[in-house]
């Protein structure tokens, strides 16, 4: 039985701005999100083990999610000077990565089958081994919510968190499935 009050407090203690219980039935693994990945705007499609297509098919995601009953959604919200504040965008991304690593380490102690979905591509290694050799750190690899096929703004609004926090605010989201 997950004590959500405790887990959501832990998420905020790890630095996240917002945290909410995530209803797993709201998770939809959508082909249109995969099409956005395939458009390769982030320049990471087919370049790491954690990104599509290597991270697994939508059918595999659907099958995997059936093993989970509890989950949380977390966000790091940053303040920007304006929409071209690249330093602010980078700082918010760095804060999200740090918060994510801290919370993942804590939750992994409690939930051995933790499934963490983060933000952005895996950048653990300077050069990913994909596709020539297996992942160097398969236990530490995680995919982004988008890479898994989730439409992040919909997951947020379906679970009571805003996706858009207003002008000059930027929110990065992640989720943790607990088992
Ligand atoms: S841990 Fe390294 S080898 Fe594995 S997906 Fe990430 S960058 Fe690639």
Task: Tell me about this structure.
This protein has 179 residues and is an alpha+beta fold. It is built from 5 helices and 5 strands. The protein has one domain (4-178). The chain has helices at residues 4-13, 31-38, 58-65, 86-110, 152-158, and strands at residues 18-21, 70-79, 115-118, 143-144, 169-178. The radius of gyration is 16 Å and the shape is globular. The structure holds iron/sulfur cluster (SF4). Iron/sulfur cluster (SF4) binds at residues 48-50, 122, 124-125, 128-130, 135-137, 141.
What can be said about this structure in brief?
This protein has five helices and five strands.
Q: Which structural class matches the secondary elements?
A: alpha+beta
Q: Shape from CA axes?
A: globular
Order of helices and strands: HEHHEHEEHE
**Poorly predicted segments:** none
Number of continuous helical runs:
5
**Strand order in the sheet with the most strands:** 1-2-5-3-4
Relevant terms:
binds iron/sulfur cluster, 5 strands, alpha+beta, 32% helix, single chain, 179 residues, globular, 5-stranded mixed sheet, 5 helices
Write the layout of secondary structure elements.
Blueprint: H1 4-13, E1 18-21, H2 31-38, H3 58-65, E2 70-79, H4 86-110, E3 115-118, E4 143-144, H5 152-158, E5 169-178
Parallel strand pairs: 3-4
Antiparallel strand pairs: 1-2, 2-5, 3-5
This protein binds iron/sulfur cluster.
